[in-house]
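Bench notes, afternoon.
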Amino acid sequence: MMFRLLLLIFIFVGYGVNAAEPLRIKITEGVIEPLPFAAPTFIAENDGGHNYVKKISDLVSQDLTGTGLFRKIPLQAFIS
């Protein structure tokens, strides 16, 4: 009796695996528009940090715009 039960379980499990079809996604069109982002200027806590503040802001901006997924908003467009 136990053998029949195990055989029945293996048949159903094996049948379900074979019935699965691989997922196929076809992308035929699409437009990726760069997302705007604002890179604020940071304020250094001491005199030695002024160079690093500008470099960090520029580095992050260049990395994001370099991907093509983001575009930097000009400083004049900031709301303040």
